[in-house]
Structure formats: structure tokens, C-alpha cells
Amino acid sequence: MPTLRSLVTNHCVDDIPSDYDTNTVYHTVGSVGGGILPVDAQNHADEILAAFKAFPAYGARILKVSVYDMADAKPRPVLATAVFNPSSPDHQSTLGPRQVAVVLSFYADRNLPRQRGHIYLGPFGPGEGIGALRPGGIVGDAITLGDALFNIGGENVAHVVYSPTGNTTHVVKNYWCDDSWDTQRRRKSLPTSRQRSSH
Q: For position 191, what pLDDT does the model report?
């Protein structure tokens, strides 16, 4: 059964490319003859995009989904892309720190290495609770996103945790999101200037 990797990139209109955020999602997809038809790959990309676009904080973000077949040799060709470019996209200046995130966590049968994964959601603006001690409604929105990823496709499609070590997949069965902000340090914005004082 083929394993599809979806790279989900979100950014604001004035972001520099190094500040784009990317999450990786894996699904196994049943197919006739073991291959993926282009129309199936495109439908998959469109459904992934719809799931992330429905996350309220991403409703005005520029989103791009790129789908790959993990069975293809590196560098893997892109099977399909789906893009959301809203008419009035968010600007970086309207959001809080880029490294502050809410984490959607998930695991398969047991919460063990190679059976669990995370999706780091953010950044957020003042209207989405940034600055408060704890995130509010974003926690429920994250769980809704997890449910949407679980329900992608039909009965022959499953949200999975992929382990490159053994080229194995485990079907995700559990999702959770804590009511605590997380820090994703590698998403911190790069400096554009520096002030100094020498004595």
C-alpha cells in the first residue's frame, strides 16, 4: 500500500522564505496495482489543503500542499500540489512571535517512539489568544484538524506515523492537544538588524 507524504507550508504575505512554516503528514492509500493515479494524488492534496484551511487561524494564510510517494527514488517528484492564496492574506506584523506554537500530538497503538508524531501550529495573533497565559479555543481547533486528517479519503486511506528507519507505518488512533503554549525554536524569525554598544 503506497505511503504519501504531504508537506504543508503556511506563511504570511511579507514573510521571507526562510520563515515559512512546514508540517509533514503521512497517509497510506490503497490503490489498484500498487500505483497512485494523478487524479488520486490531486484529490489527496486538495483534501489535505481543505483540512488545514479549515483551521481558523490559517483561514487567511497562504497555504501550499505538496504530495510525494515515498516509494519513489530520491529526489522524489511532486505528484500533486494544492495552493490557497486568500484575497486578503495575513501579514507577519499582525502576528505574535513565530516560535510560539500549539502542538497537535498523535500516536498509533502506544505512545512510543516511531509510533507518534506532532504538528506545530502557529504563529498566532492577539485575536487568537497570543499573550494569554494559556491558549483558548485553539486547542479545540487543533483537535478538529486531527479529526479531519483522520478522515481524509475513504476506507482505504489512513493517517499514519511513518518511520524511515524501518520504512514502517502505524495507523494513528489517538490525538491530543495541551492547553499550554509550546516553543519551536527553529521557527524563530531571523534578525534583520542589530544594535550594539561598545565601551
A: 73
